[in-house]
TrEMBL record:
Protein's name in the database: Deoxyguanosinetriphosphate triphosphohydrolase-like protein
GO biological process: dGTP catabolic process
Domain named HD: residues: 61-265
Keywords: Hydrolase
PANTHER family: DEOXYGUANOSINETRIPHOSPHATE TRIPHOSPHOHYDROLASE-LIKE PROTEIN 2, DEOXYNUCLEOSIDE TRIPHOSPHATE TRIPHOSPHOHYDROLASE
Length: 452
């Protein structure tokens, strides 16, 4: 459609004033570029919840991203179904829905910037980059798409404008968000930690944002919107229990985020049940007998029987049914504050399904994510990241790989040099980071012939 062709434009085409290509071709290639990227492959050795050495069964960031893509395409199919009547007449929003290629590209790409050791690694990198533009996982994803990806020399994976917009969960610049936080500005005045083991990690959670280095990409992605839409879309407001953040998402992003939440609340729950970290009694008390579930009983006790069965097939059927319930609860809402369809249309879950999904996410967070056994492994990973960064910063010529050091040398500022180190560590898998740490700091480990 002619009124959507501007969304298929790539940044390199924008720079050379080339005519955008057809959506079917562009979005299929976007998905292919993500799948074939090194950053995507590395997700197979990055933590989802459990350590990579716990079992071959449990999910990694790679399998999580694949599940998000599958759920995302299911959500789009459901929106098409409910948006088309018996005579085949479609509601207006249907023509603005992402294609299967497009939503899968966005979902597969959403965690590319995830550093080693999960959100713990993210906090550690943010601490080391606190005076140099910060670190944030979503911002790192955009950086891979715009600069670091290998498909082009200067413009990263060079995905289409709409795919790029869909991946931008928080369209605000890191420094702009933090400039509104007096508390964080005070923290920046603290002296460097002399002992990372006693560092207050909770103080260095980064704001949901993008880097100033990729501000040009944000402006390019938003160019088709009018000034009023752009201003509202990027405005930052107070957020409960954390940094200020943006309040709005593009249509495709709302679908991707719902798919991500469903995968987190249900598929990650499956891992916890299989590993017997979550007992049936606790599930019964905190979920099935909760006030939320009493109000919105989306399933009966047979689901519990299957979920906690000794049969892996029964568990899988329960998980599949729970996901299906969530997918079938999607509908399209409209935010009248925006004029452009890609900002006005918002995918949402019906009230009951959304309430139960939030309950499941809370259950996983409280009973898996924040338990001591998981936090201990996260803490160890944070120390590995901090020590690696400290050593690379002090000895870049000796410790950075030659190609990374060559890039380091041509940077024009200290902040850009530190970003090179940050990019190197952020791209590491858990396995690579731990092996490099052992090579540098364990006397009995390491050889010049090691292939990390």
């Amino acid at each position: 459609m002619l009124d959507q062709m501007e969304w298929t434009q790539r940044y390199t085409d924008f720079l050379s004033d080339k005519t955008p290509r057809a959506a079917r071709i562009v979005y299929q290639r976007d998905r292919a570029r993500v799948i074939h990227s090194a950053s995507f492959r590395r997700l197979q050795a990055k933590t989802q919840i459990f350590g990579l050495n716990e079992s071959d069964f449990f999910r990694t960031r790679l399998t999580h991203s694949m599940e998000v893509a599958q759920i995302g395409s299911g959500l789009v199919e459901q929106l098409i179904t409910v948006g088309t009547d018996a005579l085949g007449v479609e509601q207006d929003y249907v023509r603005w829905l992402p294609s299967m290629y497009l939503i899968e590209a966005i979902c597969l790409a959403h965690d590319l910037g995830h550093p080693p050791y999960g959100h713990g690694g993210e906090v550690a990198l943010n601490y080391m980059m606190r005076d140099f533009g910060g670190f944030e996982g979503n911002a790192q994803t955009l950086r891979i798409l715009a600069k670091l990806g290998e498909y082009t020399h200067d413009n990263g994976l060079d995905l289409s404008r709409r795919t790029t917009l869909g991946v931008m969960k928080y369209p605000a610049i890191y420094q702009d968000v933090l400039s509104q936080s007096e508390d964080y500005q005070q923290k920046l005045m603290r002296p460097d930690a002399q002992d990372f083991r006693v560092l207050d990690f909770a103080s260095w959670t980064p704001p949901k944002s993008l880097y100033a280095e990729e501000n040009y990409m944000l402006e390019w992605a938003l160019e088709p919107f009018n000034l009023a839409d752009r201003t509202r879309f990027t405005q930052v407001a107070p957020s409960i229990g954390g940094h200020n953040r943006t309040q709005y998402k593009a249509l495709d992003t709302t679908i991707m985020e719902l798919a991500d939440d469903i995968a987190y609340g249900i598929h990650d729950l499956e891992d916890a049940v299989t590993m017997k970290m979550v007992r049936r009694e606790r599930w019964q008390a905190q979920v099935m007998e909760s006030d939320v579930f009493a109000k919105y009983p989306l399933w009966d006790d047979k689901m519990t029987e299957r979920l906690f069965s000794d049969s892996s097939k029964a568990r899988k059927h329960a998980v599949s049914q729970m996901v299906g319930i969530m997918v079938e609860a999607i509908y399209m809402d409209v935010n009248p504050q925006f004029s452009h369809p890609l900002l006005a249309y918002q995918a949402k879950l019906e009230e009951g399904a959304m309430a139960v999904l939030e309950l499941l996410k809370k259950f996983v967070f409280e009973n898996v994510i924040t338990i001591a056994e998981v936090k201990q492994m996260e803490y160890k990973g944070q120390l590995i990241v901090l020590e690696l960064f400290k050593s690379l910063r002090a000895n870049p010529s000796a410790l950075l790989p030659s190609k990374n050091y060559a890039k380091y040398l041509v940077q024009e500022s200290e902040q850009q040099q530190q970003r090179v180190i940050s990019d190197y560590i952020a791209g590491m898998t858990n396995t690579y980071a731990s092996r490099l740490y052992a090579k540098l700091f364990t006397p009995t480990q390491g050889s010049i012939f090691d292939m990390l």
